[in-house]
């Protein structure tokens, strides 16, 4: 009888039930397919050859790779084509993080001890069964690892489709997830004594031999097994309760803990009603015969994910003098009391309670990575797309996201190109991830009492470790099963006057794809193409995004993954776009900007086969139909858009002539694309792109709450497309202030 069988007889069935539940959670994100097309035999050293030629260090890892299955439920010999080992012996692009034998043996013992000790604590009545840690390893013997654990470990260490050398990495997550659909975080650490810099992964594993090239990728050798947390959002925060005690208490006391345990949305009823199934493909409507359009894939998953922006106790104490929950309530009441809150009577679980509102503004319903998630950064693809080439030099990168506060109060994220030097210990904001970045390079503040609640930095791991004076043994695993955890150096406060008069008193330009968290959480936005289809698109099914409605069965919406674009054809802000084809009629909820009057502009790419659409705002017709065709096809566009390059013979780079030309075009309802966004491999701006246009939809008064904008095909044809790239919401105050004319960026 093996060790695991002996131990199992000692423990209650509740532990086994917990293990089965966790196994379901862990396995649902694993890759399910292996494409065997276009693979061949190498003459040089593959990743597997590299490991086998050094089997004295990697024999255990090779055993794990051999037993690991790419597709769950695969049967056959260990060396079958379905194994991860076979995958790494074939043609492709792989990054392999290979732990040594000693690292694997140590990992097995440590994970067994965690399971064993918690199980004993449950039997003794010292620990509730649902709090026992289930590691999946029930024996200290390597030979008794289960096949499922071999698959879990193997996939945690392999990135398929991209090769990452150490010189490609920086602070934050790698741009592509591993085979378990989890991101690996990287940072560089310098030894205090020797000054030698090492690569650290997930704040735990050190790379002891890097950039070992093979014909099909690269191998980095690790001193410790990568072991990402599988905890759900509230438990991930609670695991660091020593440093976030007040925020942890708030998550549980407000009841938001239940919300943060959601992992996926059940689409079964919608699937049956709409006639679509996960993972299937269909030809893209209208352009299905085009050589580059390929097939559109129906999403495989419908995950729900969160980002918790947590303020450490040491910050609450040192900056605000907050030591207890009572102290925090006093601060929250100052900013978040409203007419529906009665002190001493309104329960903390009520969304009107100040503490509920305070913590809700620190939660975003989407997965935000430090690098490549908060802002459009570090996004690279095999076919040449590189987000670094999408911005002109000298401009800030920014995004806007809704939080859980009042069903969507907005948060601004900025990576400043340049910023005013702070006159305190916080240092410069340049190149940092900054929340609610103020106007005038971070220097402006409408209400001086809010000075410690704007320009909030998302802390890098090194900065967080220094702040909490973490011991060398401290490991900060920021990624959980359905969440990311990021520490802040200040407390965020949403104040309507400050947001309207400062933070969001600007041209709010949002990539249309950023409106919908479902696209980010399910690896649709910024997705990688499958090997057999370099132009992989995604279908956006009816009901998939809760902020999109289809009013006609003829509406077919597609996400087009990021591509370089060109001035002679497509030209996209941030590289990706959404196309709606057919006799379409669809609408979506606008982001929750502060109440006020806004000019709305549609950023699009004019093209010959695009048609004419009628716009509606909150169910009412809004202006004349908009024409998305080119000047070659449409006389209306030729007259209204009348594109001229700034350096053309007519304008001659003369500022006065350019300003007059822009003013005349704007009076006809059109604007050129922004000068801050680049296309054609980063060589030209959208302002220089003939087809890149901003169409002014009208001026609208937006109050608190939901507002829906609708676009209906006036031609009722299946051979036209509506191209959605970005939307601009421009406060009236920006347009009516002649002393601060809107820039061309």
Question: What would your notes on this structure say?
Answer:
24% of the residues lie in helices and 20% in strands. The chain is built from 21 helices and 33 strands. Helix 4 crosses helix 7 and helix 13 crosses helix 14. Residues 1-40 and 74-78 have low confidence and may be disordered. The termini are far apart. With 745 residues, the chain is an alpha+beta fold. The strands form seven sheets. Strands 2-1-7-6-5-4-3 form a seven-stranded mixed sheet. A six-stranded mixed sheet has the order 8-9-18-20-21-32, with no helix packed on it.
Strand order within the widest beta sheet: 2-1-7-6-5-4-3
Oligomer: single chain
Helices, by number, come to 21
Morphology: globular
- Give helix % range: 10-25%
| Radius of gyration computed on alpha carbons | 27 Å
pLDDT averaged residue by residue: 87
Report, as a whole number of angstroms, the end-to-end distance: 71 Å
Structural class: alpha+beta
Spans of at least 5 consecutive residues whose pLDDT stays below 50 are: 1-40, 74-78
Q: How many E strands?
A: 33
Strand composition percent: 15-25%
């Amino acid at each position: 009888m093996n060790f695991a069988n002996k131990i199992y007889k000692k423990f209650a069935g509740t532990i086994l039930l917990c293990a089965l539940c966790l196994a379901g959670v862990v396995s649902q994100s694993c890759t399910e397919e292996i494409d065997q097309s276009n693979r061949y035999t190498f003459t040089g050293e593959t990743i597997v050859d590299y490991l086998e030629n050094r089997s004295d260090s990697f024999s255990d890892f090779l055993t794990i790779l051999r037993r690991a299955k790419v597709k769950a439920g695969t049967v056959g010999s260990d060396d079958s084509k379905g194994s991860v080992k076979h995958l790494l012996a074939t043609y492709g692009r792989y990054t392999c993080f290979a732990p040594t034998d000693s690292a694997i043996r140590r990992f097995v013992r440590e994970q067994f001890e965690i399971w064993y000790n918690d199980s004993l604590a449950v039997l003794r009545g010292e620990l509730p069964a649902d709090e026992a840690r289930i590691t999946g390893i029930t024996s200290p013997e390597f030979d008794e690892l289960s096949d499922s654990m071999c698959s879990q470990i193997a996939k945690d260490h392999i990135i398929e489709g991209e090769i990452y050398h150490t010189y490609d990495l920086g602070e934050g997550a790698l741009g592509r997830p591993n085979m378990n659909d989890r991101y690996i975080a990287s940072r560089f650490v310098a030894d205090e004594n020797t000054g030698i810099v090492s690569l650290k992964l997930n704040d735990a594993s050190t790379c002891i031999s890097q950039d070992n090239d093979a014909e099909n990728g690269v191998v980095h050798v690790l001193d410790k097994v990568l072991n990402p947390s599988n905890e759900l959002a509230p438990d991930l925060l609670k695991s660091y309760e020593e440093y976030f005690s007040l925020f942890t208490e708030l998550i549980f006391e407000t009841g938001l803990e239940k919300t943060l345990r959601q992992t996926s949305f059940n689409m079964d009823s919608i699937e049956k009603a709409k006639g679509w199934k996960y993972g299937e493909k269909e030809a893209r409507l209208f352009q299905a015969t085009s050589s580059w359009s390929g097939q559109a894939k129906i999403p495989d998953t419908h995950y729900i994910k969160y980002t918790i922006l947590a303020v450490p106790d040491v910050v609450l104490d040192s900056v605000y003098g907050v030591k207890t929950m009572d102290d925090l309530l006093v601060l929250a009441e100052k900013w978040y009391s409203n007419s529906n809150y009665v002190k001493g009577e309104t329960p903390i679980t009520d969304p009107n309670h100040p503490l509920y509102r305070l913590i809700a503004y620190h939660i975003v319903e989407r997965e935000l990575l430090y690098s490549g998630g908060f802002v459009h950064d570090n996004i690279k693809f095999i076919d040449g797309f590189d987000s670094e080439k999408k911005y002109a030099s000298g401009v800030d990168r920014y995004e806007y996201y809704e939080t859980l506060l009042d069903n969507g109060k907005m948060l601004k994220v900025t990576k400043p190109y340049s910023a005013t030097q702070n006159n305190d210990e916080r240092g410069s904001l340049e190149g940092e991830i900054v929340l609610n970045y103020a106007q005038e390079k971070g220097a402006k503040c409408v209400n001086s009492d809010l000075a410690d609640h704007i320009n909030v930095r998302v802390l890098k791991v090194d900065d967080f470790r220094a702040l909490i004076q973490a011991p060398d043994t401290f490991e900060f695993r920021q990624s959980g099963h359905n969440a990311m955890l990021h520490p802040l150096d200040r407390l965020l406060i949403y104040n309507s006057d400050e947001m309207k008069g400062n933070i969001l008193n600007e041209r709010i330009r949002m990539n249309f794809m950023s409106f919908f968290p479902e696209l980010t959480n399910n690896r649709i936005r910024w997705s990688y193409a499958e090997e057999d289809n370099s132009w992989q698109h995604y279908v956006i099914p009816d009901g998939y995004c809760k902020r999109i409605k289809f009013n006609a069965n003829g509406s077919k919406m597609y996400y087009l993954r990021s591509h370089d674009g060109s001035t002679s054809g497509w030209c996209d802000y941030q590289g990706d776009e959404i196309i709606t084809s057919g006799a379409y009629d669809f609408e979506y909820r606008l982001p929750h900007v502060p109440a006020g009057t806004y000019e709305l502009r549609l950023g699009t790419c004019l093209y010959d086969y695009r048609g004419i659409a009628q716009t509606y705002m909150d169910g009412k017709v809004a202006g004349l139909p908009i024409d998305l065709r080119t000047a070659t096809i449409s006389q209306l566009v030729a007259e209204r858009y009348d594109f001229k390059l700034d350096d053309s013979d007519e304008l001659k780079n003369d500022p006065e002539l350019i300003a007059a030309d822009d003013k005349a075009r704007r009076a006809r309802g059109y604007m050129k694309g922004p000068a801050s966004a680049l296309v054609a491999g980063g060589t030209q701006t959208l302002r220089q792109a003939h087809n890149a246009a901003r169409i002014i939809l009208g001026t609208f008064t937006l109050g608190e709450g939901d507002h829906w904008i609708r676009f209906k095909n006036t031609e009722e044809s299946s051979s036209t497309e509506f191209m959605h790239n970005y939307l601009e919401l421009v406060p009236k105050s920006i347009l009516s202030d002649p002393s601060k004319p809107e820039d061309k960026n």
